[in-house]
Amino acid sequence: MYTKIKFGIELKKFLQRTKDPYEIGKWAFSTYWEHLTDLEHGVRAIALTLNTMEDGPEFVFTHEELNKIADDLISGKDVQI
Questions:
Q1: Total domains present in the chain
Q2: Is residue 14 part of a domain?
Q3: pLDDT tens for each residue of the chain, 81 residues long
């Protein structure tokens, strides 16, 4: 199963490589698609919401917000975005 914790860890690592919202959105969708059949409840909504960052500046999360989302996922918190 692809868990929220795994997604959070991978998001945190990805955020160390880039701050480009388009790239982060593309990564989120790619990760969602790669694990489509074994996503823990909640990961789908988070990944697809982050994917919308590709669609324009009105959908972009700040780097700080993204790091908080990643930290909350890693700590096992429920994340609503």
A1: 1
A2: yes
A3: 999 999 999 999 999 999 999 999 999 999 999 999 999 999 999 999 999 999 999 999 999 999 999 999 999 998 988
